[in-house]
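Sharing in case it's useful to others searching the archive later.

Someone asked me privately for the predicted structure of Flavodoxin, so I'm posting the question and my answer publicly. Question first, with the sequence:
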Amino acid sequence: TGDYPIEQNADKILIVYLSRTNNTKAIAEIIHDEVGGDVVTLELKTPYPEDYDAIVKQVAQENESGFLPPLKTEVDIDKYDTIFLGFPTWGMQLPPPMKSFLSAHDLNGKTVIPFNTNGGYGIGSSFITVKEHCPESDVLDGFSIKGGSERDGIYLAIKGKRHDEAQEEVRSWLEKLDITSVSKQ
Ligand SMILES: Cc1cc2nc3c(=O)[nH]c(=O)nc-3n(C[C@H](O)[C@H](O)[C@H](O)COP(=O)(O)O)c2cc1C
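And my answer, the predicted structure tokens:
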């Protein structure tokens, strides 16, 4: 966040996100409504199990071993200057698929903007891990909001009134970052 607004042509903006129960997806869509750009959801070659306990266990193992799950999603990163990265907190870390994405793509010289939903325990180490993967990028202040809590049977929580509140929060965050998309002016 410098002295001048970051004016960005919408076709140079990518919003890439991971979402299992659609909370992070809801934030991605709100951001897209504000700034435009391309939206891509991260998909794995081998999807995670549906069962909550099974995915928690698998993610814990992957976090422990550093395993990077292969992605089905392909992105031509050279087309973009500004990359929004959206993800839930998983095991108080950046989810393995987003680690895969960051390992597979060189974001040097680009503006990187993380956003997150979580079950109420915050971002954990996720934003730090994004920064570590992007030493030569301009990593802006991220956005985080409470989403669902699958553990407690709460799936999509960012809907109705909570969606409107989230929209307000996203708007003021983007204003603070001074991100303006040319297509939206
Ligand atoms: C495997 C797994 C691990 C999770 N670990 C955490 C956690 O460590 N801290 C937290 O606050 N929420 C945790 N959650 C809850 C999610 O971060 C929260 O529900 C988020 O809004 C989900 O985003 P989504 O709907 O885009 O998938 C976890 C959820 C899953 C499925």
